[in-house]
């Protein structure tokens, strides 16, 4: 473990929740609640490996175009994920548009200011009701979130989907075919091992 070159900041795109639900004979909204445990497991793993910061993609303003029952499900899952990870002694920051009724009122205390829990050395950020367009221009909503070293996307898709475009400028991308609710510890270990092969020059 100590021999690994550890990224300081990891981005997490937990995709494939709805496809997982369909494959398991469930309604699409059931995929979100089944992904909550994956987030808490990953948070514990990142602490073990000495990751200093991670940002989870919660939901975007564009995701609000989905049917109401799905919107309610992913919002509820995001709220529960934030509080469960906070209980693991993580320092929490939530970034997104908190000026609308869509933003969960339960998360307002974390909005645009970090709340520290316990004696944790890991910062966990969540993008909730986030719109990448708010990060382009002088009023950068995610200015408190540092540059990303590594982005891991579950679900097999190979795209950024508007995830922190400024912080991602020099990121390395690792893609996992597993759907997010099928998260396995080996997914994360494989990503870290792959990161060892990356030539990190930051343009130099």
Describe this structure in words.
With 204 residues, the protein is α/β, with parallel strands linked by helices. Helix content is 26%, strand content 18%. It is built from 5 helices and 6 strands; from the N terminus they run βαααβαββββα. It has helices at 17-23, 30-33, 36-48, 68-86, 185-195, and strands spanning 9-14, 53-60, 91-95, 123-130, 150-154, 172-176. A 6-stranded parallel sheet has the order 3-4-2-1-5-6, covered by helices on one side. Helix 3 runs parallel beside helix 4. The longest helix has 19 residues, at 68-86. The two termini are 28 Å apart. The model has no long low-confidence stretch (mean pLDDT 94).
In short:
The chain is α/β, with parallel strands linked by helices and 204 residues long. Helices cover 26% and strands 18% of the residues. It contains 5 helices and 6 strands; from the N terminus they run E-H-H-H-E-H-E-E-E-E-H.
Topology, number of strands: 6
By helix and strand content, what is the structural category? Answer: alpha/beta
Q: How many helices does DSSP assign?
A: 5
| Biggest sheet features | 6 strands, parallel
Rg over CA atoms, rounded to whole Å, is 16 Å
**Unreliable residue stretches:** none
The span between the termini is 28 Å
H and E string = EHHHEHEEEEH
* Average pLDDT number: 94
Strand percent estimate: 15-25%
Shape: globular
Provide the helix percentage: 25-40%
Identify the strand order in the major beta sheet. Answer: 3-4-2-1-5-6
Structural topology:
Blueprint: E1 9-14, H1 17-23, H2 30-33, H3 36-48, E2 53-60, H4 68-86, E3 91-95, E4 123-130, E5 150-154, E6 172-176, H5 185-195
Parallel strand pairs: 1-2, 1-5, 2-4, 3-4, 5-6
């Amino acid at each position: 473990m100590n021999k690994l070159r550890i990224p300081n900041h990891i981005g997490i795109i937990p995709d494939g929740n709805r496809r997982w639900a369909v494959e398991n004979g469930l309604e699409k909204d059931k995929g979100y609640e089944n992904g909550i445990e994956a987030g808490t497991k990953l948070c514990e793993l990142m602490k073990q490996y000495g990751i200093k910061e991670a940002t989870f993609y919660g939901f975007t303003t564009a995701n609000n175009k989905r049917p109401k029952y799905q919107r309610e499900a992913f919002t509820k899952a995001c709220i529960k994920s934030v509080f469960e990870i906070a209980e693991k002694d993580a320092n929490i920051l939530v970034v997104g548009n908190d000026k609308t009724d869509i933003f969960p009122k339960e998360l307002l205390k974390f909005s645009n200011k970090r709340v520290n829990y316990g004696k944790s050395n890991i910062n966990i950020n969540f993008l909730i009701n986030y719109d990448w367009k708010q990060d382009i221009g002088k009023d950068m909503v995610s200015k408190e979130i540092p540059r990303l070293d590594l982005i891991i996307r579950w679900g097999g898709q190979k795209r950024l989907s508007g995830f922190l475009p400024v912080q991602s400028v020099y990121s390395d991308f690792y893609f996992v075919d597993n759907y997010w609710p099928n998260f396995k510890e080996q997914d994360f270990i494989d990503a870290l091992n792959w990161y060892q092969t990356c030539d990190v020059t930051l343009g130099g």
